[in-house]
Each structure stands twice: as structure tokens, then as C-alpha cells.
From TrEMBL:
Main subcellular location of this protein, as a coarse class: nucleus
Biological process (GO), any one: cell division
Protein name stated in the entry: DASH complex subunit DAD3
Any Pfam family: DASH_Dad3
Subcellular location(s) of the protein: Chromosome, Centromere, Kinetochore; Cytoplasm, Cytoskeleton, Spindle; Nucleus
Record carries keyword ATP-binding: no
GO cellular component, one term: DASH complex
Family: Belongs to the DASH complex DAD3 family.
GO molecular function: microtubule plus-end binding
Keywords: Cell cycle, Cell division, Centromere, Chromosome, Chromosome partition, Cytoplasm, Cytoskeleton, Kinetochore, Microtubule, Mitosis, Nucleus
Length: 96
């Protein structure tokens, strides 16, 4: 029984094409990352002011809606308290 392993040629033609394919994929990845970087730079330099203005406007509208909602809830709670207080002053049972 001969268990000696045959030496493999790491520089064979298959490995060279595999290496070339890997390098091509790295080149594609690098170009995609460069495009993403350019897009982020464009957004940070040009579009950020527009986005901030839109968010500021939205924040004002949200604050108004929140204030109106809070006032409405307060109005409902106080009117319900008045109904309960008025019902407590009478001798009739509470109706739910």
C-alpha cells in the first residue's frame, strides 16, 4: 500500500483562472463601493438641506397635531369627570 500523496501544482491553469475570476469580482465590488460612496457624498452635500427643511416642517405639523389631540383628550376627560361628579350628587345609580 502506497499512501504517499502526489504533490499538487498550485500554479496550474485552473487556479490561475480562479484567481483571475476572484480578482474580477473584487474589482466589481470595489467599483460598487465607489458608486455608493459617491451617492452618499452627493446626499450629504446637496440633499441634506432639503431633507432638514422637510423634517422641520413635519415637526411643526406634528407638534400642532399633538397639541390638538392633547386638548381633545383633556376635554373628554374633564367632561366625563363633570358627568361623574353630577351623577354622584344625585341619588340615582350610575349608568355605564
Amino acid at each position: 500500500m502506497n499512501f504517499q500523496q502526489q504533490p499538487t501544482n498550485i500554479f496550474s491553469n485552473n487556479n490561475a483562472s480562479l484567481e483571475k475570476d476572484i480578482l474580477n469580482e473584487y474589482q466589481k465590488l470595489s467599483s460598487h463601493i465607489e458608486k455608493i460612496n459617491e451617492t452618499i457624498i452627493h446626499i450629504n452635500t446637496n440633499d441634506i438641506e432639503i431633507l432638514v427643511d422637510k423634517l422641520r416642517s413635519l415637526e411643526k405639523k406634528f407638534g400642532l397635531v399633538y397639541t390638538l389631540f392633547k386638548a381633545s383628550v383633556y376635554s373628554v376627560v374633564t367632561s366625563n369627570e363633570n358627568v361623574i361628579i353630577n351623577d354622584e350628587n344625585t341619588n340615582r345609580p350610575l349608568m355605564f
